[in-house]
Amino acid sequence: MESLIQTPRRPASAFAITLFALIAIVGLYYVKCSPYYHRAFVAAGTHSIGHSIPTGMDPVPPQASWHAALHF
Predict the structure, then answer these.
(1) CA nearest 58: which of 45, 70, 68, 48?
(2) N or C: which end of the chain has fewer CB within 10 A?
(3) pLDDT score of 39
(4) How far apart are CA 67 and CA 21, in angstroms?
(5) Is residue 20 one of the residues assigned to a domain?
(6) Among 54, 28, 51, which Cα is nearest to 39's?
(7) Cα 42 → chain centroid
(8) What digits encode the pLDDT tens for the residues 2-18?
(9) What is the DSSP track for the chain?
(10) What's the average model confidence in pLDDT over 48-72?
């Protein structure tokens, strides 16, 4: 026989899902979009995005080695 009593959904679970989604959206924006958003204005003004991460100020990249990997 099927039970006619249904368990009510707690509003706390809806709040928790909404809070999780909000934290995820804000966190992803902060980590993924925000640095590039500001860098776009720098690139538009100076026509450069700065030095390369692997090469830094050097004109050529370093040879592949453990030393280069650890200092990257």
Answers:
(1) 68
(2) N
(3) 81
(4) 41
(5) yes
(6) 51
(7) 20
(8) 666 776 666 678 899 99
(9) ------PPPPHHHHHHHHHHHHHHHHHHIIIIIHHHHHHHHHHHHHS---SBTTTBTSSSPPPSSHHHHHH-
(10) 78
How many structural domains is the chain composed of?
Answer: 1
Instruction: Encode pLDDT of 14-42 as tens digits.
Output: 899 999 999 999 999 998 888 788 788 88
Answer yes or no: pTM beyond 0.85. no
- Per the domain annotation, does 61 fall within a domain? no
What type of residue is 58? D
For residue 44, the enclosing domain spans 13-49
Residue 17 lies in a domain: yes
Q: Give the integer Cα–Cα distance in Å for 47 and 40.
A: 10
* Predicted pLDDT of residue 63: 84
**Does residue 24 fall inside a structural domain?**
yes
